[in-house]
Amino acid sequence: MTIDQSKRDLRRDQKALRLSRPVSAEDVRRLTRGIFEAVANATDAVCIACVWPLPGEPDLRPLLYNLHEAGRRVVLPETTPRGQALAFRRWTPGCPMVPGRFDTAHPDGPIDTPDVVLVPLLAFDRSLNRLGYGGGYYDRTLAVLDCPAIGFAWSWQEVKTVPVDAFDMPLSAIVTERETITPPKQKGDLW
Ligand SMILES: Nc1nc2c(c(=O)[nH]1)N(C=O)[C@@H](CNc1ccc(C(=O)N[C@@H](CCC(=O)O)C(=O)O)cc1)CN2
Ligand SMILES: Nc1ncnc2c1ncn2[C@@H]1O[C@H](COP(=O)(O)OP(=O)(O)OP(=O)(O)O)[C@@H](O)[C@H]1O
Fold first, then answer.
1. Residue 186 counted as domain residue
2. Range of the domain at 136
3. Which pLDDT score, from 0 to 100, does residue 184 have?
4. How many structural domains does the chain have?
5. Residue nearest to atom 31 of ligand 1 (CA)
6. Which ligand 2 atom lies nearest to the CA of residue 167?
7. Is residue 189 situated within a structural domain?
8. What angle do CA 191, 142, 170 make, to 5 degrees?
């Protein structure tokens, strides 16, 4: 099977899984707290890229308010034409949301460059590889941004190995409602 085919199959299965699993309010609180802490640890990150939820995805909307109240700038992706990197636009509480491509929605605020990007995903593995919707949007965006990329997901979205291509960008960390997964220690690391 080609990498493309195995990605397609995994994408289909993981979409169905994510829509079918019930999520408790406690899970939502734990995941939101974990992401907030991961962002707080990136102390010099002023501008944080989040997402406006798609069906079945963890709902980060409470986090947007928390980050805004904590004095961070919040930006959300505008889904650009296929083949382009995402554009991030400033969000403020209650700002109008504009319908965009693939049933996404984005704020109508000014474009801004994030210092850290929270990345949605359908599947992940322990090596911090991710599978997304297949537009390649986050891979293209992270390739040009060169900033920390923190994946967020439910723990049960983990698979043994995500099929990867050369252009796939591994994440800096993945936060779930159970744990935050960070890169394994490398030989030669000072500490
Ligand atoms: N909340 C949220 N916003 C996001 C993303 C995301 O994953 N979550 N994206 C993450 O990249 C970007 C846009 N996402 C995309 C959504 C759908 C397709 C897409 O190709 N959809 C096909 C069906 C694909 C399939 O069923 O396999 C379609 O609608 O025809 C591509 C990118 C930016 N905004
Ligand atoms: N840095 C890049 N430059 C050019 N093309 C890219 C780049 N990254 C990904 N692509 C293209 O995007 C397409 C989709 O990639 P992939 O299947 O890995 O998407 P995904 O990571 O699941 O989706 P997303 O990042 O939107 O959530 C691929 O066909 C690939 O050719």
1. no
2. 3-113+122-160+174-181
3. 80
4. 1
5. 135
6. 8
7. no
8. 50
CATH of the domain at 146: 3.40.50.10420
Residue 156 maps to a domain:
yes
The CA 134 to ligand 1 mean position distance, Å, reads: 7
DSSP 3-state of 107: strand
User: Could you say which ligand is closest to the alpha carbon of residue 14?
Assistant: 1
| Segments in the chain below pLDDT 70 | none
Give phi and psi for 100, each to the nearest 5: -130, -165
In a domain, 101, yes or no: yes
Q: Tell me the whole-structure pTM to 2 decimals.
A: 0.94
Q: Tell me: the pLDDT tens digits for 128-166?
A: 999 999 999 999 999 999 899 999 999 999 999 999 999
Report helix, strand or coil for 68.
helix
Integer Cα distance of 190 and 177 in angstroms = 30
Complex ipTM value: 0.90
